[in-house]
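Much of what follows relies on a compact textual record of a protein's fold. Each token is a code from a learned vocabulary of local backbone shapes. The record below shows the convention in full.
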Amino acid sequence: MKSTGMVRKVDRLGRIVTPIELRRALNVTVGDELEIFVEGEKIVLSKYTKEKFCVITGEVIDEKTELNYLNGASLSPKGAAILLKELQDYRN
């Protein structure tokens, strides 16, 4: 992870201001949604996308073919087939 050198204080309501330079660089505009992740002791913000990606293949998943497993992780049919084959190979 790369440091920006920018430091901001949390206000009494728990908010922080994202610097304009950072918003411009990442194309984050008013009204955009940010997704919040936790990595160990770090809070990671990512521009939210409604598209779902398969955790195995990385391909965009159509809502009609999506399979949800592992605490909300998404699998495409192709990803599920790969996972099944690897589990069968592991078992033998």
Observations:
- DSSP finds two helices and six strands in the chain.
- Helices lie at 20-25, 77-91.
- The first strand starts at residue 34 and ends at 39.
